[in-house]
Amino acid sequence: MGARRGRQIVVRDYADDAIGPEHFEMVVAEVRGLEEGEVLVRNWWTSVDPGMRLRLRPDPPAGYFPQFKLGEPLDGVLTVGEVIESRAEGFSPGDVVWHPFGWRELSIVAADVNYMNGVARLQVLDMDGVEPQHYLGALGSMGLTAYAGLSMVGALSGGETVWVSAAAGAVGSLAVQFALRSGNRVVASAGSSAKVAWLESLGATAFNWRSTSVAEGLAQAAPEGIDVYFDNVGGGHLEAALAALRPGGRVALCGSVSEYESAPMGPANLFQATAKELTLRGFRGSLHLDLLPEMQSEVRSMVKDGSLVYEESIYDGLERAPEAMSDMLAGRSMGKVLVRI
Ligand SMILES: NC(=O)c1ccc[n+]([C@@H]2O[C@H](COP(=O)([O-])OP(=O)(O)OC[C@H]3O[C@@H](n4cnc5c(N)ncnc54)[C@H](OP(=O)(O)O)[C@@H]3O)[C@@H](O)[C@H]2O)c1
């Protein structure tokens, strides 16, 4: 049998401002034979996340997942596919697995490595009642991030007002639904009227941050202030939250997507944290793997009782992954952004 070959996207250039297809290149690579302990996976679905954008900056933040390498495929991107060859105990052809070698058709994966803090360790996925791509969203690191963030700031006990920004996105839409299910009042902000209508249909009070100022939208949605802010955006959104939080309020610092393609922007009123004894808690979903089984069981029960409302923006064809990334960062996607390979 001749050597297998597979298409993969490699990084051509880093970008300071808007990223686009010109920063990537499609190449065909020969796939080497397997060593003991490895499997070969034919990938079905691969992820597109804002955090990847940070790793494509010339100056990526220290302490986070490493910068992607120029001329190399993107290692450290959750991906789901089917094992087609195995030299690893416990894995057989036909198993549906997740792993971190994304944006390519074929991946060689070692079975015993704790990739990406362990969240992307090769794992056979339980397909009972769910679709494979759900493991890149609600049942995977997006669900874990939403759940861990709310849990870190004690927002799963209910009875409070919780604001979620970028609320129609992958993490945001799950944070909204977990917070509502826990008995909170939820304020949700997003960047289009269609997103706002969707969030209101879930039970949140929503506003469009692109058509009103964030401070005004927030004041109208929560005139009494907020107890918790789940921050996906940073910058001006975080500044508005610091102003609107009640004494003793908490912030789950999930991400700051407004700053991924520009210089850092704020907030200018950090003293509010002192004045009101606020808690600002940064966190990474992948460092709270202990919460994964609890989150997955919560999501499965929501899938079973029909209460999980789950949106996906699907791009067909590996070659569309760069376009999917630009669309997501520009707010043209809804729910989890996925590439079907
Ligand atoms: N801490 C962790 O472990 C962890 C893990 C995963 C993700 N994250 C973070 O969570 C956040 C959401 O990630 P996601 O995967 O769910 O992405 P997403 O929300 O599905 O997509 C990003 C969204 O951000 C919004 N946005 C873009 N530029 C913006 C701007 N300048 N101001 C306000 N909103 C802007 C857009 O929505 P609108 O149209 O609504 O503006 C866009 O659709 C990101 O900050 C990401 O880095 C953190």
How much helix, percentage-wise, in residues?
A: 10-25%
Q: Give the number of domains.
A: 2
The assigned CATH architecture of the largest domain is: Alpha-Beta Complex
**Bound small molecules, which ones?**
NADP nicotinamide-adenine-dinucleotide phosphate
The counted number of beta strands is: 15
Q: What is the rounded Rg?
A: 20 Å
Q: Strand content of the residues, in percent?
A: 25-35%
Structural class based on helices, strands and sheet pairing: alpha/beta
How do you describe this structure in short?
The protein has 341 residues and is an alpha/beta fold.
What does this molecule look like?
The chain has two domains: 4-137 and 311-340, Quinone Oxidoreductase, Chain A, domain 1 (Alpha-Beta Complex); 141-286, NAD(P)-binding Rossmann-like Domain (Rossmann fold, 3-Layer(aba) Sandwich). The model has no long low-confidence stretch (mean pLDDT 96). It has helices at residues 50-54, 141-152, 170-181, 193-202, 214-221, 235-244, 271-275, 292-304, 321-329; strands spanning 4-11, 24-31, 38-47, 75-86, 96-101, 106-110, 123-124, 161-164, 185-190, 205-208, 226-231, 245-253, 279-282, 312-316, 336-340. The longest helix is centred in the C-terminal third of the chain and has 13 residues, at 292-304. It is of the alpha/beta class and 341 residues long. The protein is globular, with a radius of gyration of 20 Å. 46% of the residues are buried. It is built from nine helices and 15 strands. The strands form three sheets. Strands 3, 4, 5, 6, 7, 14 and 15 form a seven-stranded mixed β-sheet that branches. Strands 10-9-8-11-12-13 form a six-stranded parallel β-sheet, sandwiched between helices. A two-stranded antiparallel sheet has the order 1-2. The two termini are 24 Å apart.
